[in-house]
Amino acid sequence: MFSMDLLLDAVVTGVLLGCFYAAVSIGLSVSFGLLDVPHVAHPAFLVMASYAVYFLNESYDIDPLVAGVLITPLLFVFGLAAYRIYYETFERRGSDAAVRGIAFFFGVAFIIEVLIILHFGVDQRSVTASYIGKSWRFGDMRIPLRLMVAFAVATGLTVLLAAYLSRTFMGRAIRAVAQDEEAVRLMGANPVRIKQWAFGIATAVLGVAGALLIIVAPVDPTLDRAYIGRTFCVVVMAGLGSMTGTLIAAIILGVAETIVLTMFGASWAPAISFALLLGVLAVRPQGLLGRR
């Protein structure tokens, strides 16, 4: 029987899980939500970052969160290069860039998956840290410490990125390009360089997000397939480009998933993201905090 105690456990766990979903989705909120780049390889980049964290943890005994921060500059450069290739090959050539770009990023995701399999194999990989495997007890409730760490780091990451986009010159330039690229060009700025910088940031935050991914649960090379629906659901449901909306939508998804998991079992949980997405789009097509 589904009791109030189980409901409370599901809600608390769902909020923590939702903040984690926000961390793994916030980069996509920039690349897809603000830049209109059909970045379907975002989850593959995320898994790639997790394996880089695993390598540093396994080889040099570096804490996963520290490892995530260490690989952030490399991911930023990787993002700069990825956007430049996408722009020169597709976006620069015309209006069908979105359609061809989807094929491009699907190809990139497939290549990343194959390279991970060739180097690490198909087995699941996990990391070690003092906070993994432990839990906090609040009354009758036990909360995994790894989820608490993910909650704190994910919330901080979301707040920092939102502040960067709203309070810094480059952040405001990124939002300006998203609203009116031609106006930015007329003001003497280079929209392509601004978008390239933004895509680099969207990729760089995956260093920390990838660390959280492998802290929360073991990873395997095909894990990106499980997150492509969740991340796009969060970004679209939030309202394209809304950092605050991303956090709210991710928490809604996390709570809904854990309640469905508790009440109906694991087989129903993966479908909840698409059900929520369809429901929000039917009532509010611009998303929870999107502009009309």
From TrEMBL:
InterPro entries: ABC_transp_permease, BCAA_transport_permease
Record membrane topology: Multi-pass membrane protein
Location relative to the cell: Cell membrane
MF annotations from Gene Ontology: transmembrane transporter activity
Cell membrane is among the record's keywords: yes
Keywords: Amino-acid transport, Cell membrane, Membrane, Transmembrane, Transmembrane helix, Transport
TM helices/strands, residue ranges: 7-34, 40-57, 64-86, 98-122, 143-165, 197-219, 231-253, 259-283
Cellular component per GO, a single term: plasma membrane
Single GO biological process annotation from the record: amino acid transport
Family: Belongs to the binding-protein-dependent transport system permease family. LivHM subfamily.
PANTHER family, per database record: AMINO ACID ABC TRANSPORTER PERMEASE PROTEIN (PTHR11795:SF445), BRANCHED-CHAIN AMINO ACID TRANSPORT SYSTEM PERMEASE PROTEIN LIVH (PTHR11795)
Protein's recorded name: Branched-chain amino acid transport system permease protein
Native species: Bradyrhizobium erythrophlei
